Amino acid sequence: MLEDPTVVIVFIALAAGLAAGLGVGLWLAKIARQRRLQAASAEAEAIVLDAKDRFEEEMSESKERIADYEEKLWSQNEKELSALESRVQAREDDYRKKRSEIDRSFFKETKDLQRRAAELSEAEKRMVDRQNSFDSVKSKIREVRRALIVKLGEMTGEDVAALKAGILQQLENSFQVDAKKRANRIEDETRANAEPIAKRILSIALHRFMRPSCTERGIGTVELSSDDQKNKLFGPNGLHLKALEKACGVDLSITEDNTVAIAGYDPVRRELATRCLEKLLNEKRVDPVVIERLVEKTKTDLLRKIEEDGRRVANELNCSDLNLEIKKMLGALRYRYSFAQNQYFHVAEVGWLCGLLASELGDVKRKDAKRAGLLHDVGKAMDHSIEGGHAVIGADFIQKHGEAAPIVHAVRAHHYEEQPASDLAFLVIGADAMSGGRPGARRQTVNTYNQKIEALSTIGDGFPGVTRTMIFNAGREVRVVVDAKRVTDVQSLQLCRDIADKIEDECSYPGQIKVVVVRETHAEAFAK
């Protein structure tokens, strides 16, 4: 079929037509695309121009708003800015004014310094001239003195050195006589005024001290209300009583009138036993286990109370910085007595009195005086395992726990185990005597008092030349009368010292005892 010419021609014509149609279509499409591109470009240019116009319009409006806002801010802050400018200007003016004043003052002081320097230079010149003149006069005086010494030696015929020594000796003797007279006069004035002044100070201190006397006494017995309590406490074959004795370290005995007597050298153990007995009476069941548990609990409570009592008395006298061990010893004094005077209240009393005496004298710090008075008897809280007097062991104890040397010395010397060497030590001695000697502070039996008086009388009568011994002031003063024919004035002085030493060696007493020796001369005559 392809070989047919007509078909070939038709086929060729169709191909040519298709090619021509395709070319025309492509050309038309190209023309259409160009037109669309031109239209889009024109539209884009129009959009850009429009956007540019809007941008310029908005920029113009923004500039106008900014200008309006600046104008508004300026109108609002104009007053403040003006005020700030005024203050800055005022400060600048003040600065210039002060600067000018400082410059004037500096200039004036500079001129004054220059003037003073010139005056000082002139004064130095005058001083040099005067020194030269003084040296010249001094040399002339020295020459005249040599000439006078030589002339004096020629006139007296004595050696110049011996003459000078004699004159010096005369002057020394004269000065010694004057000094002795002055010392005697001062001593007489002191003797005349010391006792009234001391009495006045003691009276003021006692009247200022408002603490009442302590009536608290040690308890050594516990009353049983019935035989049932007695049997419960005694236990089978005394088992409960023995267990309590062993745990507390005391001796217990039950009398026929249902009273438990507590005996022991340690007052703290006696207090422990007393508390345990009172608690056991309220227990429903009593056996050694209960007793042991009760004793341990009571001991803990007692130790806590001792520590609290020590802290309380330390705070009362403003000594809260005391070492804790010292506070515990002060608390233990609550259960110790001297002549039935509770030592816990005694040391507090001595602390207050010592502070009052220090405030009256003014030579000792009141704080130190109260501290030394509070600690003076802390050695009494220590048991027999530490050897020595209570003043010595108490001083060693507080020294070990950081107390200052003046406080330690005052404690050690308050019973003259060490010679008092400070005003503080004598204040503690005085306050201790005041606390123990005031009425009602201590109790003595009649037998004890009579024994003391008899011992003092025996000591006084035991010395040769003594005619009579008298005891005054409840045993605090021993007055001895001696025979003037057998004892001289000098011997009476030595006798007074000997009697005092023997009293110290043989008698036990609180405070001090005054010894007075009176030498009497009796003359008799008869008129007939």
Topology:
Layout lengths: L4 H152 L3 H49 L12 E3 L3 H8 L4 H10 L2 E4 L4 E5 L3 H14 L7 H29 L7 H9 L4 E2 L2 E2 H19 L4 H10 L14 H11 L4 H8 L10 H15 L8 H16 L4 E7 L4 E7 L5 H18 L7 E7 L8
Parallel strand pairs: 7-8
Antiparallel strand pairs: 1-3, 2-3, 4-5, 6-7
Question: Would you kindly provide a written description of the structure presented here, covering whatever features stand out?
Answer:
The chain has 528 residues and is mostly helical. It folds into 3 domains: 1-142; 221-437, Hypothetical protein af1432, CATH 1.10.3210; 446-520, Cation efflux protein, cytoplasmic domain (Alpha-Beta Plaits, 2-Layer Sandwich), CATH 3.30.70. Helices cover 70% and strands 7% of the residues. It is built from 14 helices and 8 strands. A 3-stranded antiparallel β-sheet has the order 1-3-2, covered by helices on one side. The protein has a 3-stranded mixed β-sheet with strand order 6-7-8, covered by helices on one side. It has a two-stranded antiparallel ribbon with strand order 4-5. Strand 6 (466-472) and strand 7 form a beta hairpin. It is flat, with a radius of gyration of 57 Å. The N and C termini lie far apart (222 Å). Mean pLDDT is 81; it is low at 213-219.
Question: Beta fraction of the residues?
Answer: 5-15%
Mean pLDDT: 81
Give the second-level CATH assignment, the architecture of the largest domain: Orthogonal Bundle
The secondary-structure class comes to mainly alpha
Q: DSSP helix count?
A: 14
What's the overall geometry?
Answer: flat
What would the CATH topology of the largest domain be? Answer: Hypothetical protein af1432
Low-confidence stretches: 213-219
| Strands, count | 8
Q: Please summarize the sheet with the most strands.
A: 3 strands, antiparallel
Query: How many domains is the backbone divided into?
Result: 3
Radius of gyration: 57 Å
What is the C-level CATH assignment of the largest domain? Answer: Mainly Alpha
Helix content: 55-70%
| Spatial separation of the terminal alpha carbons | 222 Å
Strand order of the largest sheet: 1-3-2
The helix/strand order is: HHEHHEEHHHEEHHHHHHEEHE
